[in-house]
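Data availability (excerpt). The following record was deposited with the supplementary files.
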Amino acid sequence: MATKRLSFAKKEFYHIYNRGVDKRNIFEDYEDMERFFESMREFNTVEPIGSLFEVSFNNSDYKKEKKSLVNFIAFCLNKNHYHFILEQVADNGISEFMKRLGGYTWYFNNKYERSGSLFQGPFKAVHINSNEYLLHLSAYINLNNKVHGLGGETPKSSWEEYIGSQKGLCKKEIVLGQFKDALEYKKFAEDSLDYIREKKEMEKFLLE
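Predicted structure:
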């Protein structure tokens, strides 16, 4: 069950998610989504980096390989909510990473001349306690736009990383390594999504 008091352990996997307060959009345009994604990428480092503005003037020391707080396994960003599968790889990694990611609220409020909370309370977290859960949840998150019937409203997600050959943000081999190839995973994910749609209780379990 989701709880903000969940104690995060290294080498364990967690479903992290949140949505806009009153179900409002947290991304109004492509620029907002890219800004959030950049934060996901740049703030995932044990060594503090300051602001994204400072990163834009990074030096040679910053370009060295960073030690991560978390591993991304899968993610999706929709207009009014997001989902991550994270593996904690540093002590207090998830909590520290999510605290840094919270700076997006300042960016959004400043851009749109608003004040107050952007998200519906603290982020939610669920421990992924079985491999079966991990696999089905990866399908649910990678294909989340289809779960919500968004059609052409394509979110930013790890789906293309999984079914394509390009490298990206995710440690996708943790999931893909259990399949013959990306095509076999693609079939599994699409079949899994059909099952989730048929079994509404499973969709609740995956925490839409």
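Summary of structural features: The chain has a mean pLDDT of 85.
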